[in-house]
Amino acid sequence: IQAFKPVEYWTIEVELKPIPAKALSFKAFVIQLNGKKINITNQEEAGKHVSFLKQANYTVQNVIKKEVKRHPYPPFTTSTLQQTAANRLGFTAKRTMMLAQYLYEQGLITYMRTDSLNISSTAISQAREHINNHFGSSFLPPQPKIYRTKSKVAQEAHEAIRPTNIDTQVEKLMEAEGLSKDHLKLYDLIWKRLVASQMADAILDQTTVDIDGLADANKYLLRVVGTILKFPGWTTLFEVEKEPQKEAEESQELPAIQSGENLIFCNIYPLQHFTQPPPRYNEASLIKKLEELGIGRPSTYAPTLSTIQDRYYIEKVERHLVPTELGFAVTDFLLKNFPNVIDYTFTAGLEDQLDEIARGERKWQEAIGQFYTPFANQIEDTAKKAQRVEINTPEVDKKCPDCGKQLVVKFGKFGKFLACSGFPDCKHTENLEEIIDAKCPNCGGQIVIRHSKRGKPFYGCKNYPNCKFASWTKPK
Q1: How far apart are CA 316 and CA 124, in angstroms?
Q2: For residue 144, what pLDDT is reported?
Q3: Fewer Cβ neighbours under 10 Å: the N or C end of the chain?
């Protein structure tokens, strides 16, 4: 991500419509030129294509209509619950598990640490009865839907996470003591996911239209995809997770057009873009990656995320996890001195060995000995030979008020702070004000990032205490 260099590219959309004057217009993307994928790298190139496309004759080459089925999501496991709660409710993994723990203790949901997708026959029967009574027989598939986990290391000791009683909807819990709004939100999510998992598939009519654009010796190919929801099925209850751009592209309403039909040019939209680096992890995507790599178990995802934040190996920047200088230093040190342990396959491999021990196929002394003996030697050698890690401490344009030396940025329990470069002779410290590009809605002053007594970052006005504006979310 740090080494990424953005590359410019352009896309072109052409707005077209059938010949009848009142026909509906639509936008199609230019995807090919003379049979090859089009690649536009600068404004000058884009301008040349725009000139040709404005003069082109447009004819519908092909219209493909097909029915597409969208299957429901399976019921929740620990990892998918944490991911969905993060994406839809904005909960951290730790928060999600605290709320789920209380719901479990109250007997409202099944055990919340599981990687199984199994559902009891009783729960399936209850869900199917509820679907039939409240949505109608058309929303009920002929046979119950059975889900199987794809993971080789999944343990089937527990069911998937589900309500203990389908008849207990969130409306019945509104007056219950001890349940906060967040408890109700999470319960509602779990309830809807389970019931939706037993509902009929959603059915969509998808239309793909290919269009020829002829301009002099240039033959352009344009494409537009439109999707119409024919039968909502399970999406009536549980919203589909879609990429915003893809959703916008496929949500176009298309007019009735046929192959060979001529189209009228309406407008053209050249758009400049830049390639983006791989996205930073957020809590949801990191949990998904941990699960894919076989690192950890359902009970360890939330503590892992809490630990790397509490020790300030990473910091949250607008819900994204960004490594700190301390995190870089620790990772580099461990990769250099303990590459076999830091390898992604280490945890999954050790879990396999422990499973073999549990099945009586291997002696634990042999398995642990193979790991621990060389590991102990590595620790001893590293303690003798490794140099102390130097963490980059950037200087700031400010002098220490006590001794006059330069102040530097350091890392502590609650994040970054300023300290005198003359430490330990001078122990002066002060808060580091990280200024963001936003103004205080109360007084117009600068907004800075501060930290609560527990170390949680929040946004406050620089004019405090004269202005006491504070917010957990970043002001726009």
Answers
A1: 40
A2: 94
A3: C
Contact indicator for 298, 79 with CB cutoff of 8 Å: yes
Global confidence as pTM: 0.77
**97 CB-contact burial (10 Å; exposed 0-12 / middle 13-18 / buried 19+):** buried
Q: Give the tokens for residue 471.
A: 């917010």
Work out the burial of residue 186: count CB atoms within 10 Å of its CB; fewer than 13 is exposed, 13-18 middle, 19 or more buried: buried
Q: Where are the beta strands (DSSP E) in 379-433?
A: 395-399, 406-412, 415-420, 429-431
- Quick one: the chain helix, strand, coil %, rounded to 5? 35, 25, 40
Distance CA 38, CA 183 (A): 51
Could you tell me which of 21, 17, 35 has the C-alpha nearest to residue 262? 17
Cβ atoms of residues 140 and 199 within 8 Å? yes
Q: For residue 438, is pLDDT > 70?
A: yes
Q: Is 459 a catalytic residue?
A: no
CA gap 30, 39 in Å, rounded: 10
> Mind listing the pLDDT tens digit for each residue in 156-214?
678 999 999 999 999 889 888 889 999 999 999 999 999 999 999 999 999 999 999 99
- Pairing outcome for strands 218-231 and 262-274: unpaired
Residues 6+ apart with CB under 8 A from 305: 92, 93, 94, 283, 286, 287
- Give me the catalytic one of 104, 111, 147, 464: 111
Q: Which two tokens stand for residue 177?
A: 């003591």
The pairing of strands 395-399 and 446-451 is unpaired
Sign of CA dihedral 282, 297, 162, 239: positive
Percent of the chain with pLDDT over 70: 93
